[in-house]
Specification:
2 strands; mainly alpha; about 70% helix
Length: about 600
C-alpha cells in the first residue's frame, strides 16, 4: 500500500478524537469509544491483526486504565482528607500571606511545585498533586486542570528520575545493535555517557523554550478565566514570570549538564521554589496590583467540577500550623523521592518479580503483549498511605475519614468510564504490528508518511511526531520508545547530526503531554471535572503549538548552524520571541505600565 495512504489511515483514530472530543465537544466518555472502534477496525481490516492480539491489547489497556484510576482515587482521597481536617484552609491562608495574587500562586504551584513532583514521580503525578491543591485553594477546576497540563512540557523529559531518557530513548535506540558502535565513533565508549550527551541537548532545547511557559500559564489563565477575558492581565507580571522561569531552567540545565538526566526537573523545581517563594515574600518583582478570579456567580458552568469548594469553605479559617497543614504533601514528596532514588535501590524491592509485589499477566491470550501492576510502586499507594497518616497528624475522626472516602468514590466513578475506552484505544493503536498485511505499527506508519513529505525540513516536524506519540500513548517514555530509532534514521537520511533529531523527539514527546487525552482525562478526574476534556484541550492547544513550533525551530537552527548560522530555524525562533516580546510590550503599554 502507498505510504501516504497508509499514513492517512493510521491518522484516522487521532482525527476521530479531534473531531468528536475537541471539535464537537463530546465528553470523553462518548468520544473515546468511537476512537476505540476506529482503531480496532483499522487493526483488524487493514493491518490484519489477529483478533486475539486486539483483545490482548484491549485487556492490557483496561489494566493500565485501572492503574490510572487507582492513582486518581488516591489523589482525590488525599485532597478530601485535607479538606475534612481543615488543612486546605490553612494552606490557602499561607498562600495569601505570600500573596493573594492568583497569577503568582499558579506559577508557584503549577510551574515550580509541579516540576518538582514531575521530576520525582512523573507519569501524570503532578496533575494528581498540584491540580487538586489549586482547586482546594479556590481556582476554578478547569483553570487548575489547564494550568496543570501546560506545565507538562519543560520538566517532562526528565520526569520520574529521567525515565523518558534512561528508559524511553535507551530502549528505542538500543534496539539497533549498531548504535553502540555509533556512540563509540562519537567518543562515548560507555552507553550511559552517550545518553547523557543526548540528555544535555534535550535540556538546552527545553531550557530555551521553557522561558515563556510561566508567562503562557498566567496569560492563558487570565484570558479564559479572568473577568476581562484578556491576556493582558497575565502578561502584566512578565518580569516575575520570566524570573520564575529562569529560577527553574538555569539550575535545571546545569544539573542536566553536570549530573545527568535523573535530577534536572526535581532539582530545578526545588531550587526554583526556594528562590521564587523567598523573592515573592520580599516583594521582588511582584506586581503592584492583585489579580483574582471574578465572583463565583460570574463563573461559567463548565469551569467547575464536583469537588469545587463552596464560598463558605473559602471564607473559613483554620488555626492549624502551616507546617502541619503542608506535612501530608511534604510526606508525599519525600516518599516519591525516596522510593525512586537509585542510591537506595528501593525499586528492586517495590517492583520485585514475585506474585506478592508484581501482579502480572504475561503473553495475554498467547500474544506478545503482557500486562502488570505493581501496587507498592504506584503513587496511588503513597497517596492512600499518606491519607491514613494524615488521620493521626491532623486529628481526623473516623466519621470525617469515611466522609472523605465516600466523596472520593463518588468523584471517581464518572471519571472511570472515559479511561476504560481511552487507554485500550491507545494500546490497540500501538500494538498494531505483526499483522498479516506486514505493515509497521500505526504510529510508525504515520511518522514515515510525514517524513517522506518533510525532507530536509524534518526538524520542524520531529517535535510534532514526538508530541503525537505522547498525545496518543499518554507518555513521553512510550513515545521515545516508539520513535527514537526512527528519528535517528531520519536524521541520518537528511545528513544532519541525528542526536539532535533524537533530542527533538524527546522534547516533542514532552510537549505532547500538554494535550494528551488520557492525561487530560486523569487531571480532569482529580478536579471532579468529568465530561469537559475537549474544552481543556482547546485551551491547551496554543501552548502546545508554541512549544512544538519553538523547539522544532530551535532544532532546525542547531543542526544547520555550522553551515548557515542564519537559517529558517533562526528566523522562526526570532519571530516567535519577537512576537511574544511585542505582545508583552503592547499589553503593558495599554495599561500605562512598564
Amino acid at each position: 500500500m502507498n505510504t501516504g495512504i497508509l499514513a492517512l489511515l493510521a491518522f484516522l483514530p487521532i482525527i476521530s478524537v479531534a473531531v468528536f472530543l475537541v471539535g464537537l465537544r463530546w465528553p470523553a466518555s462518548r468520544a473515546m469509544p468511537i476512537a476505540y472502534l476506529v482503531a480496532v477496525g483499522l487493526a483488524y481490516l487493514v493491518w490484519q491483526i489477529s483478533g486475539a492480539q486486539i483483545l490482548a491489547a484491549t485487556v492490557n489497556g483496561l489494566i493500565v486504565a485501572g492503574t490510572l484510576i487507582y492513582i486518581i482515587f488516591g489523589a482525590i482521597l488525599l485532597l478530601n482528607t485535607l479538606q475534612q481536617s481543615g488543612a486546605i484552609l490553612r494552606i490557602r491562608q499561607g498562600f495569601s500571606d505570600i500573596t493573594p495574587d492568583r497569577r503568582i500562586q499558579v506559577i508557584i504551584i503549577a510551574w515550580l511545585f509541579g516540576s518538582f513532583i514531575e521530576g520525582s514521580a512523573g507519569f501524570g503525578t503532578p496533575a494528581a498533586v498540584a491540580v487538586p491543591l489549586m482547586v482546594g485553594l479556590g481556582f476554578p477546576a478547569m483553570a487548575a486542570v489547564v494550568a496543570g497540563m501546560i506545565i507538562q512540557s519543560t520538566p517532562v523529559s526528565f520526569g520520574a528520575m529521567g525515565t523518558p531518557i534512561l528508559v524511553g530513548i535507551n530502549t528505542g535506540l538500543s534496539a539497533d545493535p549498531e548504535m553502540a558502535a555509533y556512540a563509540l565513533s562519537r567518543g562515548y565508549p560507555e552507553w550511559d555517557m552517550f545518553l547523557e550527551y543526548i540528555a544535555t541537548k534535550v535540556a538546552i532545547i527545553h531550557a530555551l523554550a521553557g522561558t515563556f511557559i510561566p508567562l503562557l500559564v498566567t496569560g492563558i489563565m487570565t484570558r479564559f478565566f479572568g473577568a476581562s477575558r484578556s491576556f493582558t492581565d497575565g502578561f502584566r507580571i512578565w518580569k516575575f514570570a520570566l524570573f520564575a522561569a529562569f529560577a527553574m531552567t538555569i539550575p535545571y540545565l546545569m544539573v542536566a549538564t553536570f549530573l545527568g538526566p535523573e535530577f534536572p526537573s526535581m532539582f530545578g523545581g526545588l531550587i526554583g521554589l526556594a528562590i521564587v517563594i523567598t523573592a515573592a515574600r520580599s516583594g521582588f518583582l511582584m506586581p503592584s496590583d492583585t489579580w483574582d478570579f471574578a465572583e463565583r456567580s460570574q463563573w461559567e458552568e463548565e469551569w467547575t467540577g464536583s469537588i469545587q469548594p463552596t464560598a463558605a469553605d473559602l471564607e473559613a479559617t483554620s488555626d492549624m500550623s502551616l507546617f502541619r497543614a503542608w506535612s501530608p504533601y511534604l510526606i508525599v514528596a519525600a516518599l516519591l523521592v525516596l522510593t525512586r532514588l537509585p542510591a537506595l535501590d528501593l525499586e528492586s524491592l517495590l517492583r520485585a518479580a514475585n506474585p506478592f509485589v508484581t501482579w502480572s499477566w504475561p503473553q495475554i491470550f498467547g500474544s506478545t503483549i503482557s500486562a502488570s501492576f505493581q501496587p507498592l510502586w504506584s503513587p496511588g499507594t503513597i497517596f492512600i498511605l499518606v491519607s491514613l497518616i494524615t488521620i493521626g497528624i491532623q486529628g481526623l475522626s473516623a466519621k470525617q475519614y469515611r466522609s472523605a472516602l465516600n466523596s472520593s468514590f463518588k468523584t471517581l466513578i464518572p471519571a472511570s468510564t472515559a479511561l476504560v475506552f481511552t487507554v485500550p484505544m491507545v494500546q490497540v493503536f500501538i500494538n498494531s504490528s505483526g499483522g498479516a498485511a506486514g505493515f509497521e505499527q500505526m504510529p510508525l506508519a504515520l511518522a514515515e508518511g510525514v517524513a517522506n513529505l518533510a525532507g530536509s525540513a524534518w526538524p520542524f516536524f520531529a517535535t510534532f511526531i514526538g508530541g503525537l506519540g505522547a498525545f496518543v500513548a499518554g507518555s513521553n517514555t512510550v513515545s521515545n520508545m516508539m520513535f527514537s530509532l526512527f528519528q535517528f534514521g531520519v536524521g541520518e537520511r537528511i545528513s544532519v547530526d541525528p542526536t539532535w533529531i533524537v533530542a527533538l523527539q524527546a522534547v516533542g514527546g514532552a510537549s505532547g503531554n500538554i494535550i494528551c487525552v488520557h492525561n487530560v482525562v486523569a487531571a480532569s478526574a482529580v478536579a471532579g471535572l468529568v465530561g469537559k476534556e475537549g474544552a481543556v484541550i482547546r485551551k491547551t492547544l496554543l501552548p502546545f503549538c508554541y512549544y512544538a513550533s519553538m523547539t522544532g525551530a530551535l532544532g532546525y537552527m542547531f543542526v544547520n548552524f555550522a553551515t548557515a548560522p542564519i537559517n529558517i530555524g533562526t528566523l522562526v525562533v526570532a519571530g516567535i520571541t519577537a512576537g511574544l516580546i511585542y505582545t508583552i510590550y503592547i499589553c503593558n503599554r495599554s495599561l500605562g505600565t512598564s
